[in-house]
Write a structure and sequence with these properties.
The structure is a single chain. The chain contains 10 helices and 12 strands. It has a 5-stranded mixed beta sheet, sandwiched between helices. The two termini are about 30 Å apart. About 40% of the residues lie in helices and about 20% in strands. It is an alpha/beta fold. It has 2 domains: about 1-140 and about 320-335, Nucleotidyltransferase, domain 5 (2-Layer Sandwich), CATH 3.30.420; about 150-310, ATPase, nucleotide binding domain (Nucleotidyltransferase, domain 5).
């Protein structure tokens, strides 16, 4: 038998669970506007269910209160479908891994509360997972190529842009990060200027395939390995204003070239910092994660680095998903690192 303790503020609840050769971990993700659940069996993802919220499109961005309400509606059916797809009975679950943070507090609370209730009802341990760590650790799912430590991680999403030195599953150091907006946010906000619906990032990627990067947008000069995207957004805004004064149909007539130029500039900013990180650390193993890792331009730029060993996640593991939470939880399960019932959701959470 193996024992794991979950400490509350005024109590100690002991969970007793059988040591399994093939542990079953239920992963739950609810950090923003995707309700997700996944089942991992001995390091293999058997199901990865995501329910995306369409309600935010009409507002041009995620509305926190609406996101939390949608999570409440979706969490039970999503978890049920994940278990049924994996052909796993809930009584077979050995641990529940969930996103503790970072993210929207209201959204996190839904997954947080459900995970605690589910684990408590089954008398199995909780596993707290850092959302940003999970984006990189998903590369250790056993059906895909796994990197070795140490490696450089680039996490690129709507809320974060970070360069991370990863020495082990529980030892990560941020060596560079955005000073203002995340790159995913820059894609979406520039897309809004161009008249694209939210989320604009995938549409910019789509239209860029038919355009030419012939508009020389300036790139910010930021010291060390940090990023900045606010100045880039301003330069796009001024460019559009100037050109529309000359041609009121400028955006309509040059949409594809605008998208290609925007994407080219943003990817160049990421690649320039990544190259500096490689030169500084001497590490040429590169792991990317986050929603923007699905971007065609970024994937193509990385594929051209023949002297780097690059790990790009399958598309199903790029956006917010519970597979990455389950994989990150698997590392903690193996080390008997379990969570506490009185831990609160964290909107900000360091690596």
């Amino acid at each position: 038998m193996r024992y794991a303790s979950v400490f509350g503020s005024n109590q100690c609840v002991n969970f007793v669970h059988q040591t399994r050769i093939m542990p079953v971990i239920l992963g739950i993700e609810s950090s923003c506007d995707d309700t997700a659940a996944a089942v991992l069996v001995d390091g293999h993802i058997k199901s990865n269910i995501i329910s995306s919220q369409k309600v935010h499109k009409q507002y041009g961005g995620v509305v926190p209160e609406l996101a939390a309400r949608a999570h409440l509606q979706n969490i039970i059916p999503v978890v049920d479908l994940a278990l049924r797809t994996a052909n796993i009975d809930k009584k077979e679950v050995n641990a529940v891994a969930y996103t503790l943070g970072p993210g929207l507090v209201g959204s996190l609370l839904v997954g947080n509360s459900f995970a605690k209730s589910f684990a408590l009802s089954l008398d199995v341990p909780l596993i707290e997972v850092n959302h940003m760590q999970a984006h990189l650790l998903v590369h250790f799912e056993k059906s895909i190529p796994n990197p070795s430590f140490p490696f450089l991680g680039l996490t690129v999403s709507g809320g974060h842009t970070q360069l991370v030195l990863v020495s082990s599953p529980n030892q990560m150091e941020v060596i560079g990060q955005t000073l203002d907006d995340a790159v995913g946010e820059a894609f979406d906000k520039v897309g809004k200027m161009i008249g694209l619906p939210y989320p604009a990032g995938p549409l910019i990627d789509k239209y860029a395939q038919n355009g030419k990067a012939n508009i020389p947008f300036p790139t910010p000069r930021v010291s060390a390995l940090d990023f900045s995207f606010s100045g880039f957004k301003t330069s796009v805004l001024y460019h559009l204003r100037k050109q529309q004064q000359l041609d009121e149909h400028y955006i309509q007539n040059h949409r594809d070239d605008l998208c290609a130029s925007v994407q080219h500039t943003l990817i160049n900013i990421l690649m320039e910092k990544l190259e500096k990180a490689v030169n500084k650390t001497g590490i040429k193993k590169i792991v990317i994660g986050g929603g923007v890792s699905a971007n065609t331009g970024l994937r193509q730029a990385l594929s051209k680095k023949m002297d780097w060993n690059v790990f790009i996640p399958p598309l199903a593991f790029t956006t917010d998903n519970a597979a990455m939470i389950a994989v990150a939880g698997y590392f903690k399960y193996q080390n008997n690192t379990f969570g506490a019932l009185d831990r609160q959701a964290q909107s900000r959470m360091p690596l």
